[in-house]
Structure formats: C-alpha cells, structure tokens
Write a structure and sequence with these properties.
There is one protein chain. This protein has a single domain (7-142), classed as Rossmann fold (3-Layer(aba) Sandwich). Helix content is 26%, strand content 29%. It has four helices and nine strands. Helix 1 (7-25) crosses helix 2. Bound molecules: guanosine-5'-monophosphate and magnesium ion. Residues 35, 38, 61, 93-94, 101 line the site of magnesium ion (MG).
C-alpha cells in the first residue's frame, strides 16, 4: 500500500474545504447530506470546522459490490432524509470517480425541492469523469488508482485508516485472498 495523502495533509484539506464552504454559504443555514458509507469521516471532520447553522443528514449510495474495484449498478436510498423543501444543501461524498453517484444524488435532492444543492468531494480521480457536472468543492485531485482509508473501503475494510492509500494489484489480490471464505487455515504453529 502506498500512502497518497497523510493525516496532516487531509486535515489541512478539510480546513480549506470548510473555509470555502463557509464563504459560499455566507451564514445561510446549511443541510449537510453525507453519502454513506464512505463520507462518514469527512462529514465528522468537516462539520466541526464549519461556522454558522448546520444540520446533518445521510443518504446511502453504492456502486461497488464486495471485492469489485470497478463501478457496478448504482443504488440510492434517500429515505433517511428530512424534508428538504427550500433548504440549502451540501452533498458530501468521499470521491468523484465517474461522477454518476454525485450527479444522481444532486438531481434527486433538487427533485425533492431543495433551494440550492452544492456538492463537495474529498477526492476527484483524474481522467475518469463521465458526466457533465463538476463538483463545487474538491479537496484533492488524485491519479486513477483505487484508494482506501479515511472512510474509503475495500470490501468493507480499511475505512479506519487516518490516511489515504493506493492499493496496487498485489494489495488487491492479497486482500481478496484474506477475505475469501475458502482460504486454507493458517498452518499450526506447533505439532500436536
Ligand atoms: P462514481 O459514481 O463517481 O463513479 O463513484 C463514486 C463512488 O464510487 C464513491 O462514492 C465511492 O464509494 C466509490 N469509489 C470510486 N472510486 C473509488 C476508489 O478508488 N476507492 C474506493 N474505496 N471507492 C471508490
Ligand atoms: Mg460512495
């Protein structure tokens, strides 16, 4: 695993994003909508740096299944959201890859009557965008590699890392083998 962004770099990125969001909101109450599950660490760190009235809610989106590292079909669940009519909303996601997740959520929240929907992502992968929209706030541009940590997972693991790391093909193969239920048991450490 190769460290791409250290905890210190992430902290200053969040600080900068919070300042940009604050300048844009100009004291208007903001409803932060985190995209589960990858955004939980970002939302927790970001909201503690926002001045002004903030409320928080969560939507759920998934485009990856298990050990896949390419997007599958997109599922959205918005049933945890409160009434958004007339609200200024900031959608927060971990990463903008093809952009399809963010675009679908922004459209869905506009359809629910939000007054204004802005989008924030911690990471944007270069050369991967497949939609016309651009996120309003971007923490870091990264190369087209599969990343984990600071909320981002591989098959449910690595979210707890305080940094962002790139997984190469060998890391992915090792993690897949470790998670496979058919893996052979570790050899006994001593003879019976
Ligand atoms: P998009 O819809 O923009 O293609 O994909 C966005 C979603 O895919 C993100 O919310 C994230 O869950 C997942 N994703 C995209 N790239 C990566 C990556 O490199 N690592 C991880 N862990 N998730 C990713
Ligand atoms: Mg996601």
């Amino acid at each position: 695993m190769r460290v791409l962004l250290t905890a210190a770099e992430l902290a200053s990125g969040i600080e900068r994003l919070a300042a940009e969001v604050g300048r844009d909101a100009r004291g208007t109450p903001l409803m932060v909508v985190g995209v589960l599950t990858g955004s939980i660490v970002i939302v927790a760190d970001l909201i503690r740096r926002l001045d002004g009235p903030v409320s928080v809610s969560m939507a759920w989106a998934s485009s990856y299944r298990g050990t896949a590292t390419e997007p599958g079909s997109l599922e959205l669940h918005l049933d945890l959201l409160p009434d958004l009519a007339g609200q200024d909303v900031l959608v927060v996601d971990d990463i903008f890859d093809t952009g399809r997740t963010m675009e679908a959520i922004v459209v869905a929240l506009e359809e629910r009557g939000a007054a204004r929907v802005r989008s924030l992502v911690l990471l944007r992968k270069q050369g991967r965008g497949e939609v016309a929209m651009e996120p309003d706030f971007v923490g870091f541009e990264i190369p087209d590699v599969f990343v984990v940590g600071y909320g981002l997972d591989f098959d449910g693991t690595f979210r707890q890392l305080d940094h962002v790391a790139a997984l190469d093909a060998a890391d992915i193969a090792a993690a897949r083998a470790a998670h496979s239920p058919s893996r052979s048991p570790d050899p006994p450490s001593c003879a019976p």
